[in-house]
Amino acid sequence: MADSNSAQIVGLIEELSGPNRRRRQEVAHQIALTARANTKILIPYIRPLTDALYRPEAQTRWEVLDALSSIAVGNPEAVADALDGAEASLFDDSSSTVRLAAFVFLARIAASSPERSDQIWQLLDEAIQCYHGDAEYRDMLVALLELARGNASEATRKALAARVSFDAENGTGYIKTLSGEILQALS
Predict the structure, then answer these.
(1) Would the CA dihedral through 7, 12, 13, 19 be positive or negative?
(2) What's the gap between Cα 97 and its chain centre?
(3) 88-112: pLDDT as tens digits
(4) pLDDT of residue 133
(5) Which contacts qualify for 90-94: CB closer than 8 Å, 24 or more apart?
(6) What is the pLDDT of residue 175?
(7) pTM for the full model?
(8) Mean pLDDT per 10-residue run, the chain (187 residues)?
(9) How far apart are CA 65 and CA 52, in angstroms?
(10) Deepest in the core among 24, 43, 73, 155, taking most CB within 10 A?
(11) What are phi and psi of 94, to 5 degrees?
């Protein structure tokens, strides 16, 4: 059975670089589902997953970013090479879903160590400023809450607190609530 699963994964990974746009999207979705169930099976395929972040269709990119985010929970070192592709996706003008998936991935990596938080914070901060109040902003704040509860450096923690403190005091609705939760997690 394990060999059958491995063969299926190899086939899916190969199809990620195939010529059919629709099939790449379907395959990326299957890979994201696989990552939620068993991240270890995808570890040997980080390079082709990272390469898939440069496919033209948004769905392939967001599904692969979701898979990489799942892997990052337990093995952030394995997905570190995907940072450039995630950065490109973070500022994708055509898809808010891709931007959000990239933001979640980057926040998850940033939460994994003080060094990574310092490396990634400027990207997250720029995205916060760009997308503040957009439809995906609530989920971005949830990802920042994960960062606040993670292993961020003191410098990143201070910068994050400074970034959300105005909204925690003066915001309304979910922005005020989640910004306050981030501040609480940081204290």
Answers:
(1) positive
(2) 11
(3) 999 998 999 999 999 999 999 999 9
(4) 86
(5) 90/123, 90/127, 91/127, 91/130, 92/58, 92/61, 94/58
(6) 96
(7) 0.95
(8) 72 95 97 95 96 97 98 95 96 95 98 98 97 94 98 98 98 97 97
(9) 9
(10) 24
(11) -95, -15
Please, are residues 43 and 78 in contact by the beta-carbon 8 Å criterion? yes
Amino acid identity for residue 130 in this structure: C
Judge whether 61 and 53 are in contact, CB under 8 Å.
Answer: yes
Amino acid at 31: I
Token duo for residue 88: 């490109």
